[in-house]
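for ur thesis appendix - MYND-type domain-containing protein. copy paste whatever u need, i formatted it the way the template wanted (i think)
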Amino acid sequence: MLPREEILGLLSSMGIDLPRKTKLSDVELDKRLSKALDSAQYLTRVIPKPPVNPISYPSWFRNESNTPVLDAIRRHNVGEATLIDGSQMRGVDNPFPLYTNAFMDLRQTFMTIANACDKGMLPLILQDKGESSGICIRVLDVREFDHQTPIIVVVFQHDVKDSLSPGSFEWISSYMNGSAGRIPMAKVTATVQEQHLLLRLLNQNKKRLVSSYKPKRASTESSFTLSFLIPVGPLGAQEMAKYNTNNGCSVCGEPAKQKCSRCGAVRYCDAVCQKEDWKSHRPLCNSWQGAKWQGLTFVPANRPGANLYAFRFNKYDNVQHGDAQKRLNRMKEDETPGPPSNTHGTTPFIVKLQVNSSMARGPAHTMFPVSDARQDETDFFIYDQRRTIEVIVLRDSSTDVVSFNTVREVVHAKGERGLKVFFWAIRTGEWTLDVCLDKFPEWQKW
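the 3d part is after this line
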């Protein structure tokens, strides 16, 4: 098991930012990392009922018309695709800098492994810059789950500095002295954190192979471990919501039993967490004293009325698996959509509120373009950064038209072009939230 701080860092690289003082046990944190990595592999789509026998699938290279493994291994969501397209228009090849995010580094290393498949199963050595840790890995076979999903069968061995195993030494020597047929060896720089993610995936997947599967391997690979890799991509909106849920204390996530007496906005499990949080909470606490909050009633963004439904791409929708279409199909079948999950509990969070207007651009305008008959702006679109809440506030269906008009006036006065503002918000019920009308967060870049 990895150290606690490292597990939290790896989870954060995947977009899972748990409370910094979470009281989840080391075992539970470790389990959450494993589950998150399985979600990132879209495992239940590819291997719904393990164990898997790779030879039950056709070879990826059975005909020349197949997509290169490099193209098939790529996974990204709508938000990343937009960023990639924009970067390419500016002449930037890779908008994601290396060695700053372990999970993004891992996904790029997957493409290097896929490229090695296309070039004849080249062996690879992954090492950090200081060569303190390394993984020897070679692809034995590539099978086809479907035309978008290769199953890459590999053998691997992990070593640390000053402790190179005899098996790794023989394996490396066989390629350096030409006894392995002078096959070139690819060297990949991979941080220790990235290696930990890759090793976790390999060790989880090795248990999902049938015991009878015994592919041919080189004599120098007898001590290596057999496993497989399948494409890895960003977590979807549902997974992000599930793994980021914090319905309790803003410090540790435990059930909240008290709130700050000065601002009344932030909740804690006990006085110990409240005292620990005071230094970071104080600026906001001072700001929120005497703040004015306004309640709003919302409806699902995809169901603004009894006879209406609307759809927009979520930036966390996976591009390759048709997530958006599946979500649309589910939306059409669901006549009574439930409230969005409350992933924030009673903790204040930032939302972007956008007034629908004929002058608007972006999600709200795309969903509900305003005609000449709707010039008086009759709805808001509200969402948080991870889209765990995406809702519509309709003036005509609100129980209090005054509250709608009150918030709209603030947006007109404070917002960009009088159309959108970032607010502090607190979830107050399944279909309600409060927004702070006179204390605002910094402008967000999302």
